[in-house]
Structure formats: structure tokens, C-alpha cells
Amino acid sequence: MSELEPLGYSPSPIAGEAIALVVGCEFELETPQPLSAVIQVAPRPAPGVQLQRERWDSDARHHGYLDAYGNRCERISVPEGRSRLAYEAELLLADSAQRIEPSAREVPAASLPDEVLSYVMPSRFCLPDELGHEAWQRFGSLPPGWTRVQAIVDFVHAHLEFVPGASNPWTTAADAHRAGQGVCRDFAHLAITFCRALNIPARYVFGYIPDIGVPEPLEAMDFAAWFEAYLDGEWHTFDARNNIPRVGRVVVGRGRDAVDVALITSFGPLTLTGFRVRAEQPDPVPAAS
Q: I need a surface site. Which of 50, 99, 215, 229 has the fewest CB within 10 A?
């Protein structure tokens, strides 16, 4: 087990109220040969996020780096046979509640900053050129801005049925739309596709969501995918899978779609034989007697 200086984080304190979270995951892996892999599970550096401590538990050699999108990635040398890798982080989050800003307006395409233009373009899983006609027919006459993005979220939430295992690593937004079912990444990809078709920049987000203030979940804890839309010069959080505000979202990565924020990228045959995710508030420390 190793504790390292968190990559990309500054030690600046968080002002005001904050909530404490423990997030992490555990992988059980199997491969017939030694290979290299990249995993993305560590919280992304961001204002209002203080990473107090993190631990990696593995006998494999590994080191971290920041990718082109500013996401924390870990390169790991996976040995032949069976192995285990675990990660855990203790966080403080400021402004942990999801912001709702119905007055946020769309930015005209001609006024979009250069750095956000890639989030209007087609990407591997998000195909605004393929679903553009439907996007304009279904949402084009709605008031531009937050209301229109929320209408997209409402439609995707109702149109897709959440079915674990319903999609595969090659499923595009158009595939999920035709099938009418998918997992959380498919909900995000389809909503992003409709936004981009309307010239609203949208990017894919992957991370942890604790079950704070919601009914007991029916399925085991897992990583989650949602998206952010660019309105009024800022990125705003939307979630087509849950479609309700959530507390304590912890971003692992952002990108054009799931290609840029892959949980595991292996350079060789690698089987995931076991998988657990944790995202919760820590148990309170007992008072001294």
C-alpha cells in the first residue's frame, strides 16, 4: 500500500462549509501475459475539492500523470495471472449541492470561445450529424438556454430504459437511441449528441456519486456518467440518467465522450473478474468519553 502526494492538487484550504467523502474502488484482474494499462479512478483536481489523503494498494508498479484534458491517469504494469488493485481517497467538497440556474442562456456559435468548439463537433460516440434532424425537430422550437437543455435531459431520461449490460464498449448515442435502452454512459452520450446538434457545447463527465439524500438504491454502487453543457460562459451539470439534483458529485474525468475518460485502457488482453466502488460519507468519529 502506498500514500503519495496527490497529483495536480494544491494544498489550499476550503473556506466555509464542506462535506467529507470517502471514494474508491477495487479491481480484480486476470491476464495471460504481463501488460501495461491506464486507469482513471482518482478525483480530478478542481476548485472546491480538497484531497486530504489517497492510498493505492497494489504490488504492481504504477505512476500517475495528467492527460491532455487535465484528468488524473495512472499507468500500471499488470503482472501475468491474477492481481488486485485498490484505490481510496478522502475528500472535502465545498459547494457540494448541484446548481440549478434556469436563467442561463445559450452562447451563439459565432461567440463561442475557441477552446469549447471541440465540444460541438462529432466524436466517436456522440453523433450530432446523425441525429441532428431529430434534434432540431424535437427541440429546435424551444426557448434556447437552460430550458432547452433540460428538455433534452427529460426526453433522454424517459426514452432510454436503464438496463445493466444493455450496451457494449462500441455502442454509440445513435445505437442507444434506436435500442431505447442503455447504461449511464449511453444516457450521457445521447443528451450530449442532441445538445451538440443544436450548437450547444456539451462534454462527458465520469465520476463518483454518493447516495446522499436519495432513496436506497436498487443496484450496487458503481461509477457514474453525466454531462456538462456550456451556457452563459460556464459549464453546468446535467444528468440524464438520474434527472434529479444530487449532492457530492466527485469528478474523475471530463472529455468529448467515454473514449477520453475510459475506466481501464489495456495494451493487451485483460479481464476484469471483480469490481467494487465506494462513495460515501465517512462514519462519524465517536466522542471521547
A: 215
Look up the pTM and report it: 0.91
> From the CB of residue 251, how many other CB atoms can be counted at a distance below 10 Å?
19
pLDDT tens column, 96-149: 778 899 999 999 999 999 999 999 999 999 999 999 999 999 999 999 999 999
User: What pLDDT is stored for residue 286 in this prediction?
Assistant: 57
| Fold (CATH) for 18-96+264-280 | Immunoglobulin-like (2.60.40)
- Domains 18-96+264-280 and 109-247 fall in the same CATH topology: no
Domain boundaries, the chain: 18-96+264-280, 109-247
Q: Position of cell 503482472?
A: 79
Q: Strand order in 35-39's β-sheet?
A: 62-66, 72-78, 35-39, 264-266
Q: What is the mean pLDDT of residues 272-284?
A: 90
Most confident of 56-65, 103-112, 206-215: 103-112
154 or 288, higher pLDDT: 154
- Architecture, CATH, for domain 109-247: Roll (3.10)
